[in-house]
Amino acid sequence: MSRRWTLDDIPWHRFDAAQVDPAVLAMVKAAAMVEANAADYVDYLHGVFQDDEALKAAITLWGEEEAQHGAALGRWAELADPSFSFSDSLARFRESFRIPEGASGSVRGSRTGELIARCVVECGTSSFYSAIRDSADEPVLKAICHRIAGDEFRHYKLFRQQYRRYSERQPLSALKRLTVAAGRVFEAEDEELALAWYCSNQPNEPFDLRRHSAAYGIKALQVYRFEHIARALRMVFKVCDFNARGPAAAWLARLAWRGLRLRGWWLHRYAA
What we know:
- The protein is mostly helical.
- It has 11 helices and no strands.
- It is globular and about 55 Å long.
- The protein has a single domain, classed as Ribonucleotide Reductase, subunit A, CATH 1.10.620.20.
- The chain has helices at 22-36, 38-48, 53-80, 86-96, 111-135, 139-169, 174-185, 191-201, 209-221, 226-239, 247-271.
């Protein structure tokens, strides 16, 4: 296993304020909130897999790495915007958003379904940080996002490996696998992201779920390229045990790309 990176591995001395894109900065501030709030998800997953000590240990490590992502992004955002306080914004976010505590079962209906959902999340985050890395000009942000994208891909492989183990004793039908995966995809623009945007970018105005969700979405959709979407969908197909290189996957990638471009157009219209 490769050595885990730390904040000391980031080339902070290479920071170039002239290369900071304000739109990307606003998005990174929100992403830092979500990543740093991993402890609640660790507690939730520990409850779901309460008798699986090996997986719980892996989930603890996963949570530590997610929190480090938030710390790295937050530190970069403070460099890019000296008026921004990562700790203050995170405190506001944690006061505003909490996931259900004390869970003893998965909200997906089964442990197998929970692991599919976790894989979908890691597909999305790996592609998201790859997209930021590929679109950003600021060298420190590129370095951070490159490391985070690699972590998220390893997390995907971890949860996919566990999915295969659990699916042997708790198999799900193809329809159920697809339903869980699709459901988690459509949760990607939920209240958590809107609140993260609000708490880190516009905390002095009233919270509006639709408006702040749209504000985040406009910025996030701008960094994606077709290859990021296609790669994420291939990863989703793999965990659902579908042919990731077949015509259905290629067709769905093109459809998803057109859908995202249409959504971007609609969000701009809504914001205007």
